Amino acid sequence: MIYIVGGAPVRTEWLKSLQQTEKATWIGVDNGALSIIKAELTLDRAFGDFDSVSEKEFELISEKAQYIEKVKAEKNETDLELALFWALKQREPIRLVGATGGRLDHFLGNIQLLTSEETGNHPYEVELQDEQNLLRILKAGEWEIADDPFYTYLSVLPFTPVVEGLTLKGVKYPLTDHYLKIGTTLTISNEIIEPFASISFRFGIIMMVRSKDKE
């Protein structure tokens, strides 16, 4: 698993709890590198222009990072996009964290990254995660989703003007061959009621969100 930690605020203890295996790779994006250091995790790589950290903080990042790639501030890609495209070459599952808070344009841009051709061709899951949510983009086809007691809700939102043939099984509110148009909340806050749920559709792109209420 590769964790890419963006610059949005993250709780140190939660970030530390994500370390399930010593084989996890931690990538810090800009001041996300500081979040990794504060959580006492190994900073395997750091990407960014580092315009949001002080000179002293950058010295700390340079000292702790196994590898650092400093880029110019004016460029065509966000720092997180550069980190993601490196991670996509590694052929491992990827989680983006520290990527939902802060600036709304950055958050929406991070979701857009999940729809890129490069991300779509990745052989493993690429997901966006925070303490309450796990977000993933689904292309047309059939998907099996395991129940997870950590997440109460399952929502699917159209990411294209229409999603055709949407069928939901193993959930509280099933659908069969539904024509789902963008701009509706019909498919928000569903719940998985079987060990596995099934999501299938023949055309379009869906944003799937597993979520729970804030404690």
TrEMBL record:
Top-level taxon of the source organism: Bacteria
Record keywords, A-Z: ATP-binding, Kinase, Nucleotide-binding, Transferase
Keyword Nucleotide-binding on entry: yes
Matching InterPro entries: Thi_PPkinase, Thiamin_PyroPKinase_B1-bd, TPK, TPK_B1-bd_sf, TPK_catalytic, TPK_catalytic_sf
MF terms (GO), sorted A to Z: ATP binding; kinase activity; thiamine binding; thiamine diphosphokinase activity
UniProt domain Thiamin pyrophosphokinase thiamin-binding: residue ranges: 141-207
Keyword Zinc-finger recorded: no
One biological process term in Gene Ontology: thiamine metabolic process
EC number: 2.7.6.2
Any Pfam family matching the protein: TPK_B1_binding
PANTHER family: THIAMINE PYROPHOSPHOKINASE
Name of the molecule in the record: Thiamine diphosphokinase
Organism: Jeotgalibacillus proteolyticus
UniProt lineage: Bacteria, Bacillati, Bacillota, Bacilli, Bacillales
